[in-house]
Specification:
Chains A, C: This is Structural maintenance of chromosomes protein. The complex is a heterotetramer, with 2 copies of chain A and 2 copies of chain B. By secondary structure, chain A is an alpha+beta fold. Chain A has 4 helices and 6 strands. In chain A, the strands form 3 sheets. Chain A has a two-stranded antiparallel sheet with strand order 1-2. By secondary structure, chain B is α+β, with helices and mostly antiparallel strands. A 6-stranded antiparallel β-sheet of chain B has the order 2-1-4-5-6-7. Classes of the chains: A alpha+beta, B alpha+beta. At the B-C interface, loops of B face helix 2 of C. The complex binds adenosine-5'-triphosphate (ATP) (2 copies) and magnesium ion (2 copies).
């Protein structure tokens, strides 16, 4: 049991720096993940620290809203690297991201996630414009909300 | 495996029988505020075994269409997830609310909740691992967990 | 003391329905604010309920992300109506709003807040495009983050 | 009264002496992620009397430029808010961090914190009333307070 835990921990901490660099598209970005107590990792906590591109090492609580979102996605994709779920559902993860970071996240999803299917909910064209298909949901008539669903296959419209 | 269709029957704001799909490698769900986008995510989370508090309701019966205004249209509702496995055969998971409790089916055969969840886990789907569903407003918290919380997350995954 | 409390409560509950209708630009929108215990309001809680346009009465917890943001702004502007602060600072309040609701909030700020100065932080052109002036902030060089500030007076560019 | 300028001296990511303004009736602050927009809001909140936990720091000295990487450039920092009252005269509020504590000035004269906050309250500015500052990510919570929380909010306002 503790062997599997250590293996999981090592796998994710090896992967996370590379994933964070790819997500931020910047070799200067750094991510560290490791146990407080390397002898017996499952007894203590696991620390996570990101150094945003162009910045220096500081506590995670100093990060801005957008920087925290990128750090969170790096961790999520690193966990997937160890234990791949077949699909992700991400509800408005782009809310705190500026357009540059939205572009980076969208191209990471497109280029670096081969065995992963992604379903995102988004209000921003800069994000959902990268999708293969759009599921449009609109409110229909009724006493209470009735959701109507439309499907657009975008792969028909542009040559990928 | 690949999630191809989600079918809903009287689930939250989806009245009657509604089929969503075929889904692609990268699918985006769009629409105005309050139209039912997060309800669609609740449908996927529900069929994957998520508990009611993560579905923004107090009781399972609140998931039935119309119960938000106290007038449920039916006594039950269900969601079916249709996967294609290795490009060949279809694998269907169905979870329904009947009366006040859940029923589970795999390819149409009724199974226990533990058999259902075990089969999902074999595919890498484990809602307790919180490694594939990111609810609205929750993304930043993933990075801000305490070291102890992270340890228990890794324990669940390994 | 309790008299002032009751007066405050009554003032805000009288104003909130009208403000919510103006914010949602829809006469069907309804907002209710009132004490649990009308005899002695300060002893109990104060309930707040919104009925989004096109919907029926339901608990606030049923509202979607965008609907909650509009309900929150209606309350904020109603409190201002009773006890006006000279200015507001709103940090990315548009994060969960679709473009239609962003337009509604921006025009409410422009048209209905005479004695209120508003400073918003936003990533969305659909929102900051309505401002009289833009304060642009960019990261400059340095060991740690150094914020550089630029000012654009937009009133010079378009006829209001 | 109208907030015309915010002046900062070594406050968070603002190095040296930085003046922002003139501000207008409707001013928008824009810029990339992590550039210092919320730090600007922290400057306004600080000079209006907000406590350190709402400014995302543990100690007042963390507000000094450079302390985020353990290398503060100075022993103090300050923020000045310059108002125009009734279109005529200027009213300046200044709050600074010197050593580990705050100092307060109105129009250049040193005053106690209670005199400072009382003068702000006369203008309708009361940080305890939470009625004019909406921090990043906090807007939805304003509508979702419990009835009891709403009562204490109204008590503070009235
Ligand atoms: N059982 C139900 N039957 C019918 N409607 C329901 C039911 N449960 C919730 N709803 C409705 O669903 C709406 C919320 O939908 P949802 O949260 O999916 O919106 P959304 O599209 O995600 O919006 P946003 O973009 O603002 O996040 C509520 O207004 C509520 O009335
Ligand atoms: N005392 C300080 N000195 C220098 N830099 C600091 C100090 N305190 C915080 N910072 C820096 O400020 C940055 C955060 O800035 P801020 O939260 O204002 O970003 P933002 O523009 O609001 O971004 P977002 O759009 O993502 O919300 C951090 O990266 C941190 O390094
Ligand atoms: Mg939603
Ligand atoms: Mg910010």
């Amino acid at each position: 049991r503790s062997e599997r835990f250590t293996q999981c921990c090592n796998h994710i901490s090896d992967a996370i720096d590379g994933i964070y660099k790819k997500l931020a598209r910047n070799e200067a970005a750094q991510a560290y993940l490791g146990p407080d107590n390397p002898e017996e990792p499952y007894l203590d906590g696991i620390n996570y620290n990101c150094v945003a591109p162009g910045k220096r090492f500081q506590p995670m609580s100093n990060l801005s809203g957008g920087e925290k979102t990128i750090a969170a996605l790096a961790l999520l994709f690193s966990i997937h690297n160890y234990q791949p779920a077949p699909f992700f559902v991400l509800d408005e993860i782009d809310a705190a991201l500026d357009n540059t970071n939205i572009g980076k996240v969208a191209s990471y999803i497109r280029d670096h996630t081969t065995n992963l299917q992604t379903i995102v909910i988004s209000l921003k064209e800069e994000f959902y414009g990268h999708a293969d298909a759009l599921v449009g949901i609109t409110p229909g008539d009724g006493d209470c909300l009735v959701s109507k669903v439309y499907l657009f296959d975008l792969t028909k419209f542009y040559d990928k | 495996s690949f999630l191809q269709y989600i079918e809903m029957e009287n689930f939250k704001s989806y009245r009657g029988h509604v089929v969503v799909g075929p889904l692609k490698q990268f699918t985006a769900v769009i629409g105005p505020n309050g139209s039912g986008k997060s309800n669609f995510m609740d449908a996927i989370s529900f069929v994957m075994g998520e508990k009611t508090t993560s579905l923004r309701v107090k009781r399972l019966s609140d998931l039935i269409h119309g119960s938000s205004i106290g007038r449920p249209v039916a006594r039950s509702c269900y969601v079916t997830a249709k996967f294609i496995v290795n490009g060949e055969y279809q694998l269907e998971f169905q979870r329904s609310v009947i009366g006040g409790s859940s029923e589970y089916r795999i390819n149409g055969n009724s199974v226990s909740s533990s058999a259902y969840l075990a089969r999902l886990e074999k595919m890498g789907i484990n809602v307790k691992a919180k490694n594939f569903l990111v609810f609205q407003g929750a993304v930043e918290n993933i990075a801000m967990k305490t070291p102890k919380e992270r340890t228990s997350l890794f324990e669940e995954i390994s």
